[in-house]
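Section 4.2 – Deliverable D4.2 (structural model, holo form)

The reporting period included a commitment to supply a predicted holo structure for the target in complex with 2-acetamido-2-deoxy-beta-D-glucopyranose. Inputs used:
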Amino acid sequence: MFVNFRWIRKCQCVQLMTTCLVLSVVMVCWEQLDDGIISHVKSYSYRYVINSFTYINKSLTIPREQARSFSNFRYLLDPRDKCAGKDVLLLLFVKTPPKNTERRSAIRSTWGNETYIQSSLGVTVKVVFALGSPKTKEEELSWSMRGGVDIQEQLIHEDGLHGDLIQQDFLDSFYNLTLKLILQFHWMHSRCAHARFFMTADDDVFIHMPNLVNYLQDLSNRGVTDFWVGYVHRGTPPIRRKDSKYYVPFEMYPWVSYPDYTAGSAYVVSSDVVDKIYQATLTLNASLYIDDVFMGICANAVGLSPQEHIYFSGGGKAPYHWCIYNQMMTSHGHVEDIYDLWKEATHPQVKQWTSGLTGGLYCTAVKIALLCNPFYVNGYPCKAAFL
Ligand SMILES: *[C@@H]1O[C@H](CO)[C@@H](O)[C@H](O)[C@H]1NC(C)=O
Ligand SMILES: *[C@@H]1O[C@H](CO)[C@@H](O)[C@H](O)[C@H]1NC(C)=O
Ligand SMILES: *[C@@H]1O[C@H](CO)[C@@H](O)[C@H](O)[C@H]1NC(C)=O
Ligand SMILES: *[C@@H]1O[C@H](CO)[C@@H](O)[C@H](O)[C@H]1NC(C)=O
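Output (structure tokens):
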């Protein structure tokens, strides 16, 4: 009886101390907690309980004359006949700043090689680069570094060789990415509306073109419409920390959650969607500079939601392995390794090695080890190992 009593007191004491400890930790870390957990909880509940974003559309709708200010920039480079007279399966925009000449050149000779795609995969894919105008500071910098050749002249020269640069005269900067997004939808609408799919990608994304083409051909044969695929962000809250690159002020976006959207690193939509998004950009306030979130707002305005593809990366690198190459669509963060990855990922023996019962079992085991590892984040989800 006595022992029991003491035991209970000890228990209560431990409880009390734990509570105090937790409370003090919470108090000390309140700010971070609020930014991370609380806003996510709020935003998730919002997304799943209220699940209505119609007022966003209403409050961001502005008169057409005003909305035009986000799109009526002069074209500095405009390969208007790029798609003419061809049955284009995919029009693929790569978002690239003027200075990234090497990345564009790497893309042209690897996954973005139109000649290769035509001859090996038997379809027409058009790869174009979306640019704004160069920064003055960069212009000066490049002047001294490139022996006096102005960066805009370099671009004109590059376009003369390849004919694949699309440029408008807004300043190319992170905070103008939404203008670049609008440029892409408007260009496809007016110059390449017959392409069956639209894609947008960062210039450090690796795209497994043979896998993507297979996938899109299949979808095209089934005549999909209202199609939007990528790595989906659901119920994401706006970031209110001023030191973040993605900081969005309350005045710009007062709600606790963004509509669902796909990661801007790479996503695909069908051509009917391009038309709808184009229409939405004619009446929406495009001041929100996070381009993939703005895409979500446009889609929300036309009643469209994205679907998930587990082999579209959410910002991380795919593991280097044949079992992954067999199914990968996109992977993010590749610059120096792009040539090697392209060679490896499209090696004819990948399909051979990974097929059959043994190949399948082996690859499942490998993928579990690679993707279900808790230290592997932002790439493909663990469940991809089982599909
Ligand atoms: C593109 O592919 C073709 C055919 O495979 C090849 O001949 C050509 O050299 C490649 N282009 C580049 C820039 O690597
Ligand atoms: C966006 O582009 C416009 C037009 O060139 C320019 O006036 C503005 O400063 C740019 N905004 C940013 C944040 O770079
Ligand atoms: C668009 O939104 C921005 C930022 O919220 C605001 O400053 C601007 O006045 C709005 N534009 C129009 C035409 O309402
Ligand atoms: C968004 O607003 C536009 C114009 O006000 C309207 O035509 C459209 O139906 C709205 N969309 C939704 C999903 O409410």
